[in-house]
Structure formats: C-alpha cells, structure tokens
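Fold it.
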Amino acid sequence: MGDPAQRCGIWLVAQLPADDFMMGSFDQTIAIAMYNPSVAQSIEQLSFELTAGALAEQERALAGLRTRAGTVIAAASIAGSFLGAETSHGAVGAWGALALFVFVLCVASAIWVLMAHDLVFAFDGQTLLAVSDPRGHDIPEAYRAASVWIEHHLGENREKIQRLSAWMTASCVLLATEIVLWTLSLTV
C-alpha cells in the first residue's frame, strides 16, 4: 500500500531546519501535492484499500502475538529449569509443585495462541466473480463487494485476536507467577 502520504498524492520534497526559514516560524517540512497514479480513482477503490490495509494490519498483529507466545514458551522453559535445581536438593516441595503446575498452564496458554484459529486474511476471488459483470462494467461494484466481504471478516478477526490477546496476557501473568514460585521454592 505504501506511505499514506503517497496514497493521497502528497510527496515529501524537502525537510529543512527551522533556521532556514524566514523568522523560523514555518513548519520544518515542505510537502507538495503532485499527481500520483496510485491514488484511488473512486470512493469504492479507496474503501477497498482501507479495509484491505486493516486486514493486513490484523495479520501483522497476529504474527506479533505468535512471536511473543514463542518467547513466553522459551522464558517459561528457562524458568522451569529451576526444577532441576530443586530436585538436586531433594524432593520437590509445595512451592515447587505449584510452580510446575503454573509452568504447564503458562506453556499451554502460549501454545493456544500459536495454534490455528480460523482467521481470514485473504480475499475470496469467487465472491468477486459472482458479483462482476462479464463485460467488466462494474469495477466500482466489485470494489464495493470486496470491501463488504473484507469488513465482515475484519469484525470476526478482531474478536478472535482480542481473545488471543487475553490468552497471551494470561500466559505472561502465569510466567511471572512461575518465576516467583520457583524463587520461593529455592529459598524456602
């Protein structure tokens, strides 16, 4: 999609220090509106580009959640290595057993975030073909249909990503709890 300023037809021409302007009272950036062929040709096309951009943003958000879930699993595993230190001193006490239970919950919740959850990030071309005119006269209607289809999936994805974020938050809280419990098990 590119830079939003370029999509609107505004290109950055120069950025100068304030001292270079008379009296230093002007903005430091000079922008000039130029013709940009990638600017939307209709409101339908603009709507499609905005909703498709939101869908791409959701996909990046999910990728970020999954990256953090992998990090939590690694951190929980490192914290879980305290189990070896605990068992080398004898039997696992109550704090150690509780820490082990919290470790399992932490890893399970992070794995839940990593699993597939039926999110939609790609447009179904068959939907577009179903509303298109064989002569190609209804391009704006095709943009409109694509926007409506994407908007529907944006809402569904949003709810699922919010639930996954809650699972990720729970996993982080469990990780912190696990670390505290392992520390208690080693000091008590």
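The radius of gyration is 26 Å.
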